[in-house]
């Protein structure tokens, strides 16, 4: 039903700051709702309560010869994901992940160590997973140059999935994506800053590329401020940090704080290919890296981040954040039997003042 409804909806570009939006119906169900915290954002009373779940995953590759593709060809989607993980993605009101390869069979390799591309026909795999939003602000979407990026953009435009973070021009690459749920507007801004930013072309007024923020955060912060004025919740998804490390770079910490101060409600990151810790700034969380999700053969912890948005009958609005423990290896993503060990692992990566409880909820203490 989720995919069928999506086919009936349209995407359009808004003038001004640059924004894309889609509409999706409310999916109010019988999910348990945690009580509101003592201090929450209070808005004028509204008639209809809501409870939405936005689910986020890290790096995904469906490139030729990748472990996920080989596993999918052998086992199908249900054989690649535990039922709990697949159901969480499909049942989310909005599912978002990082699509870290070019959807193309054309183009010329950009000179770099690794180049990833996959047949555009494979976009149906992401659709079957329940994906609604693909982050394209990363260092592999331009691996096959202008042709590869154009094919990638067109692949998503012709699918039920919206792409954000890359485009034919800077206005398109930096465009904010507005998800309009029933009674709630969520804005998504996506940027890219990695250690070898020169290998990933940033979009300009006259050339295609990603929304690259290596040179300056000015436009990124401007987009967040503009989104804040138009949305109930603002999500910033950053491709940043250093590959292979579980510790955020100093600029991740400073940029994360700047994004919160500019109006972001939550900052979500990836690129290091492994989990990093969590911070809070002004009461808002920064998840530095969600790590590999469905990407390579190497075994490691991964997670789904579930952002639960609530409004009660009095008009009180708040958000909860919960991690779903998972393990990724050889193209499969499976549930973790020992959840306590997973929570302890993540807790040890976090700054003081961040706590994970026995159900995976993340709070500031």
Structural class, please? alpha/beta
Q: What is the general shape?
A: globular
- Overall pLDDT score: 89
**Tally of DSSP helical segments:** 9
Main pleated-sheet profile: 9 strands, mixed
Rg computed from alpha carbons, rounded to a whole number of angstroms: 19 Å
Tally of DSSP β-strands: 23
Approximate helicity band: 10-25%
Low-confidence stretches: 3-17, 22-31
Distance between the termini: 40 Å
Share of residues in strands: 25-35%
Describe this structure in words.
The chain is 23% helix and 32% strand. The chain is an alpha/beta fold and 365 residues long. The strands form five sheets. Strands 3, 4, 5, 8, 9, 18, 19, 20 and 21 form a nine-stranded mixed beta sheet that branches. It has an eight-stranded mixed beta sheet with strand order 1-2-11-12-14-15-17-16. Strands 6-7 form a two-stranded parallel sheet. It is globular, with a radius of gyration of 19 Å. The protein starts with a helix and ends with a strand.
């Amino acid at each position: 039903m989720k995919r069928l409804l999506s086919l009936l909806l349209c995407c359009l570009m808004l003038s001004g700051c640059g924004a894309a939006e889609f509409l999706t119906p409310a999916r109010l169900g019988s999910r348990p709702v945690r009580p509101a915290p003592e201090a929450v954002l209070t808005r004028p009373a509204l008639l209809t309560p809501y409870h939405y779940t936005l689910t986020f995953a890290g790096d995904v590759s469906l490139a030729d010869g990748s472990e996920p593709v080989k596993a999918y060809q052998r086992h199908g989607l249900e054989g690649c994901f535990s039922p709990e993980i697949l159901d969480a993605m499909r049942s989310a009101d909005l599912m978002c992940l990082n699509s870290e390869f070019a959807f193309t069979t054309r183009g010329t390799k950009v000179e770099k160590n690794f180049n990833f591309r996959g047949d555009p026909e494979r976009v149906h795999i992401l659709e079957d997973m329940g994906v609604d939003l693909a982050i394209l602000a990363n260092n592999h979407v331009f691996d096959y140059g202008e042709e590869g990026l154009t094919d990638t953009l067109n692949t998503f435009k012709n699918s039920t999935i919206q792409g954000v973070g890359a485009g034919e021009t800077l206005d398109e690459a930096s465009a904010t994506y507005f998800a309009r749920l029933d009674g709630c507007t969520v804005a998504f801004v996506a940027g890219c800053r990695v250690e070898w930013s020169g290998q990933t072309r940033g979009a300009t007024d006259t050339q295609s590329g990603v929304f690259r923020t290596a040179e300056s955060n000015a436009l990124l912060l401007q987009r967040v401020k503009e989104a804040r004025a138009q949305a109930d919740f603002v999500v910033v998804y950053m491709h940043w940090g250093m590959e292979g490390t579980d510790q955020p770079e100093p600029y991740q910490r400073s940029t994360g704080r700047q994004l919160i101060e500019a109006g972001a409600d939550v900052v979500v990151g990836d690129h290091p290919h492994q989990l990093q810790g969590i911070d809070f700034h002004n009461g808002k969380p920064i998840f530095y890296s969600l790590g590999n999700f469905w990407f390579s053969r190497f075994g490691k912890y991964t997670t789904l981040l579930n952002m639960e948005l609530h409004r009660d009958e009095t008009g009180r609005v708040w958000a909860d954040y919960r991690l779903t423990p998972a393990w990724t290896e050889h193209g499969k993503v499976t549930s973790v039997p020992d959840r306590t060990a997973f929570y302890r692992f993540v807790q040890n990566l976090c700054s003081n003042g961040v706590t994970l409880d026995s159900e995976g909820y993340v709070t500031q203490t």
